[in-house]
Amino acid sequence: MRRLDQLLANLGYCSRREARQWTDAGRVTVRGEPAGDSGAKADPAEVRIDGEAPDHPDGLLLLLHKPAGLVCSHNPGEGPRVYDLLPERWQRRNPPVTSVGRLDRDTTGLLLLTDQSALVHRLTSPRRSVAKVYEATINRDVSPDEAAAITALFAAGTLTLENDPAPCLPATLEWTSPRTATLTLTEGRFHQVKRMFESQSLAVTALHRSRFANLSLSDIPVGTWKELPLDLAIG
Ligand code: URA
Fold first, then answer.
1. What pLDDT sits at residue 126?
2. CA gyration radius for the chain?
3. In CATH, what is the architecture of 131-212?
4. Where are the domains of the chain?
5. What does the pLDDT read at residue 137?
6. pLDDT mean for each 10 residues of the chain (235 residues)
7. 133 C-alpha to ligand 1 centroid (Å)
8. Does 5 participate in catalysis according to the annotation?
9. Can you list the positions of beta strands (E) in 38-155?
10. Looking at the domain 2-49, which fold is it?
């Protein structure tokens, strides 16, 4: 059971104050009857708002194909955000829809978005070591010997990054051409892929995340998302 004004406000329909106007105007019904009091409690399954069932009352989990040029920050001052792709009502939800970890502005690919904070913590916890797969393009061709040396170094679990004394966990690097490679990480440090290549004097010129745990983008078009069940086993 949830208070109607809280339900409407938390799902992004309107403010709690406006919820009172909505109920007064008969826009909210419970079991088919107009809800008289916006402070009354009701089972969301029995509530209708303008004749429709409440929008995802139990939460949201989305698999987004992130385009380049959008930030994962909530701060609009940082430029266009991934959240701007979502319906406005979802952008007003509380708890807010947030990304599971972050991708850089210029990185494309698989990004999970959810309002389930426990899920965010579980999937970003260093103890969980969730696998993330990145397709990286670098600024020049590397020779087969150099490629093999970098692969061995990344796998060794000894690589340290600038301003970060803890060595990176072993990572799997597979070269797909002299300047493209697939890197699988089980941690998520700030700009980690770019910094790992930078440590070898290589610049990443394009980065795409193709997998997150057991999830892949399949054929989701860029800039769109697929809804996932909240109880999906991710790992
Ligand atoms: N590593 C990076 O350097 N950038 C990303 O966006 C993700 C991982």
1. 85
2. 22
3. 2-Layer Sandwich (3.30)
4. 2-49, 61-125+216-227, 131-212
5. 98
6. 97 97 97 95 98 98 98 97 98 98 98 96 91 98 98 98 95 98 97 98 98 96 97 88
7. 11
8. no
9. 41-42, 47-49, 61-66, 98-99, 108-114, 132-138
10. 3.10.290
CB proximity list for 219: less than 8 A, separation 6 or greater? none
Structure token pair of residue 53: 């069932």
Catalytic residue among 43, 50, 55, 104: 104
Could you check whether 2-49 and 131-212 share the same CATH topology?
A: no
Q: Ligand 1 centroid to 2 CA: how many Å?
A: 40
CATH of 61-125+216-227, one of 3.40.50.1000, 3.30.43.10, 3.30.930.10, 3.30.70.580: 3.30.70.580
174 CA from centroid of ligand 1 (Å): 17
User: Dihedral through CA 27, CA 28, CA 29, CA 35, nearest 10?
Assistant: -110
Atom of ligand 1 nearest to the CA of 195: 3
Closest ligand 1 atom to residue 107 Cα is 6
Q: What is the pLDDT of residue 36?
A: 86
